[in-house]
């Protein structure tokens, strides 16, 4: 059962010259207590994806209103359903203004109970997104030092969070803060609370940031390259810590990285991103054993040390494009060694390539069981539906956009 | 030849090849020391960034230097090129000691030895065109005629995979990978023999990284270059280096041929470092050693072996053999807390506060001691020593407590710096465990017994 699901997420940045489609139709989901790895090169849209989930996209960027970001925790859905009774819909209803959906439950209004359902974070009012941020879904950023305030002690920053989110003060807040630092493996936590971030080493800073993220006991942790700035030995410690926290707290983790080694170490399932799209989704074992998409295969081959004793590393020609027009072709085609003529006019859709549908690749080479014509037609047809939806939504955006500005 | 690194002459002398190893060396480094902050009058103890490092780099070979940040690998590279003033030891380049060169000779020598820097966004001047950047070394060294320089730059740009029309463009128009190509072209302008590559690909994406590594390999073959590659990415090192040296806190812990070192690392630090690499294959088992803590400050390195504070294979003194692993781990943890406090409490005001009983920011040491030791039946003499140390800490005598504990529980690893041992063909390692009376690290279980579970 997924706890967080993202469907057709589209985030664009409007500049004077062009519209950058940083995230362009991304879908994935994370189950409770599981770790999803999102891997890709810089510029592939990984970080924007994470920021979109928490509503951290600022002007000139915006999340397309047709994107779906759904949070499925029943307790949270229930509390929101009670607070916003007018904006609840039951699974079979069609209500435009609803952002809370109850799939199964009982009662109504302020005493409704929810067994399963979801809150749509794209349509939700800012106050709800703020409630989600930190308390339900928390984020750990790449650069620990810049996520901490240099002029306050670490203890101060944790206590501030506890006061705002949980209303804890004084001795009680100090006790909880000490426990938090201890739970992320910071030795002598009471002393550390009184220290400033610059007095912490890089690994300790990242632990403190994780402690901050855990302060409100979230269910989902979004980690944006949390170990990239660290040495391997410290990286190993942080990965071990996250693994332990996931187990102890039943956390769901979305782990963004460009390092395939880290993915292999920590993820249960993986989404490979390229130029704003997910090109392949699979369990971690299948991704490394049976990667299907030519991009994934190229990426895996270009890791030094993995391809055995070769003098030259296989490389991928060219670089990641910045997409600024709707995809009517495969965005990887210009660099793809297996590209053929149709790749330049048909946008490939994600199709199952095995593992009971849990392994999917967006490439015209699949599904292999069908003939080329059948495949092309299927991809083209799926693509057209997609486009229609987008065009319809685009007309709506314009009016929406005016309202916002 | 004077030995300055505290290694007994015979330990290296008998095994010169094993220790540094190459039959036709281009660069010989011997007991190199580079300290920072030693020139200050009241600077206190200097940071020993490079502390008695010796090795050789063979002609046409690639030597990798790996280690965590702050281990001194970049300083080592810069010292080799005399970009830092060295405090001791020799760097011989084809028989000439470059540490004693005067300004003019140094400038002449530097034609032969160049550097490629880590960050391609800050190591090239944004205000100059690509052509000017690559031509600058030629101008500085007054290389041939201006027309020939221009010609040379075009050839170089072409050679590193840039196009002729890039000559008049500015760096901001280039991607990270292309910028690194500019840096490489600049380093090769004067046809050097020796190039120090300081993390040349760590700022780049993996697919771009592969291209730059291939380029470096091609250039080496074409121009017969000798490389020293500084990196923290061990898979990169494994891919392009002939031999690898592993540094920790200014010391060279282990050196040996790449494949051999990766397959059978001998030094505890090398073993831990290698097992920390996340392998891009989920089916690889989980038997890894996770090091506890972070490297100590190079201003206050541990006594004896620099790795002793984190070493999972640290030798336990014979007299404590009767203690259980858990008890031993508790004692180590206790010492760790005191060590950390001693480090943190360096400021005078803090120390004063502690003396006056104002500093209430610490958990009192006796409650830490109680947490750790109550409920385990320690031998009476051990218990007495720990109690005495607890009292000393409570009185603010952290240093004394540390010394007393080190004497009682430190053992050989904290008492003496290990000498270099030959551990294989052309492979040498610094660790007490290679001495005949102890078990080799490889013979011990990977699960560190001297640490409490987190």
Could you give a quick summary of the protein structure above?
Chain A is built from 13 helices and 15 strands. With 405 residues, chain A is of the alpha/beta class. With 454 residues, chain B is of the alpha/beta class.
Structural commentary:
The complex is a heterodimer of chains A (405) and B (454). Chain A is α/β, with parallel strands linked by helices and 405 residues long. Chain A is 36% helix and 22% strand. In chain A, the strands form two sheets. An eight-stranded mixed beta sheet of chain A has the order 9-10-11-3-12-13-15-14, with helices on both faces. The longest helix of chain A has 33 residues, at 372-404. The relative contact order of chain A is 0.12. Chain B contains 17 helices and twelve strands. With 454 residues, chain B is of the alpha/beta class. An eight-stranded mixed beta sheet of chain B has the order 6-7-8-3-9-10-12-11, sandwiched between helices. In chain B, strand 9 and strand 10 (251-257) form a beta hairpin. Chains A and B meet through helix 7, helix 8, helix 9, helix 10 and helix 11 of A and helix 8, helix 9, helix 11 and helix 12 of B.
Q: DSSP strand (E) fraction of chain B? A: 15-25%
- Provide the CATH topology of one domain in chain B: Rossmann fold
Distance between the termini of chain A: 38 Å
> From the alpha-carbon coordinates, what is the Rg of chain B to the nearest angstrom?
25 Å
The helix content of chain B is 25-40%
Biggest sheet: strand arrangement of chain A = 9-10-11-3-12-13-15-14
